[in-house]
Design goal:
heterodimer; A: 256 residues; alpha/beta; BirA Bifunctional Protein, domain 2; 3-stranded mixed β-sheet; 10 helices; 11 strands; B: 94 residues; alpha+beta; Enolase-like, domain 1; 3-stranded antiparallel β-sheet; two-stranded antiparallel sheet; 5 strands; 38% helix; globular
Chain lengths: 256, 94
């Protein structure tokens, strides 16, 4: 009997809801209210998320974000600052019990295993993706996906991005650069180091097509069956609580 | 207040903000894009480093002890990388 996981597609939401929901699913999974879950989501308005250990003031151009209506939020996971464009990026999360056969005690190994679902998914689209330690997926040496993991209350949460289109110019308007002089250089370097699904396939690839490919990738790689599901009342209530009491709060977002 | 940033080769960025008093760490903040599980251990490391001299050996020892006692795992940087960056910030302290 093939193992069944829940698939959620929560569509477009703001940054605070998005981060609150990932944590709410983690809590629900820990209480055994929900099965192992893979979630797809996007960001509206666009947002910058920073890693748990980063400083908001150091990484994000707050004034520009406010002016452009771009949200900024601290993640529960480590890693770097990411600009989440509404049309340019698909985000996923995997919420799985730490005791599951896919989860190694070794964190680096767990990144490789969980990222293999994405790698296989991208290969469904004829994109020769490869995992690159520590936490990236690359195509022809250029980054197409960044991923971050946390382990809490016996659950592993990994979330990450898959680039559909890149917009380095906007990326560097919202992320702080060491000096204005090198902004153009950084934009150029991002163009050389980062790629996207549309860049590689040289056509506009819809979110639906990407999701279908990733679902296959996860199912084949993890040897599971994904079944579309819904959020439980517990998750919905917990999401609003976490959003209100944590993710919108200055105390959280500016704590480092 | 001294500041330093250090990019670990094949690893992550570490940034340190440091205040010294009588050559000992009075306060410090460790930021960056590394991974540390559980994440809350970072506050413990910062707390435990206060009052210590900027010696590589001493700093590495404190970081290692803290991580071991919390069963914490650092990814993208080593104990030595963290200690090196703290010392760099100390050298820039004014």
């Amino acid at each position: 009997m093939i193992e069944e996981w829940r698939l959620l597609d929560t569509g477009l939401n703001d940054a605070f809801y998005n981060m609150a929901l990932d944590e709410a699913i983690l809590i629900a999974r820990s209480k055994n209210i929900v099965p192992n879950t893979i979630r797809f989501y996007r960001w509206r308005p666009p947002a910058v998320s920073i890693g748990y250990f980063q400083s908001m003031e150091d990484e994000v151009d707050i004034k520009t974000c406010d002016k452009l209506g771009i949200d900024y939020v601290r993640r529960r996971t480590g890693g770097g600052a990411v600009y989440h464009d509404t049309e340019g990026e698909l985000t996923y999360s995997i919420i799985v019990n730490e005791k599951h056969r896919l989860i190694s005690r070794n964190i680096q190994e767990t990144y490789r295993i969980l990222c293999s679902g994405l790698v296989l998914g991208l290969r469904q689209l004829n994109i020769p993706a490869e995992f690159k330690p520590i936490n990236d997926i690359v195509v022809y040496g250029k980054k197409i996906s960044g991923n971050a993991q946390t382990r809490r209350i016996n659950i592993v949460l990994q979330h990450g991005t898959i680039l559909r289109k890149v917009n380095p110019r906007l990326m560097f308007r919202v992320l702080k650069v060491p000096s204005e002089k090198i902004r153009d250089k950084l934009i150029k370097s991002i163009e050389e180091r980062v790629t996207s699904i549309s860049d590689i396939l040289k056509r506009d690839v819809s979110f639906d097509e990407i999701k279908k490919a990733l679902i296959k990738g996860f199912e084949n790689s993890f040897e599971i069956k994904l079944t579309s599901g819904r959020l439980t009342d517990f998750e919905e209530e917990m999401t609003y609580k976490l959003k209100r009491e944590k993710y919108v709060m200055k105390e959280w977002n500016f704590r480092r | 207040m001294g500041k330093a940033a250090y990019k670990v080769k094949d690893g992550k960025m570490i940034k340190i903000q440091l205040a010294l008093e009588n050559k000992k760490i009075k306060d410090l903040k460790i930021t960056g894009d590394f991974f540390l599980h559980p994440e809350e251990t970072i506050e413990e490391i910062e707390k435990n480093l206060r009052g210590h001299f900027l010696s590589m050996e001493e700093l590495v020892h404190v970081i290692k002890e803290t991580l071991t006692s919390k069963r914490a795992v650092l990814l993208g940087a080593s104990f030595e990388d963290l200690a090196r960056c703290i010392i760099m910030a100390g050298e820039r302290n004014d």
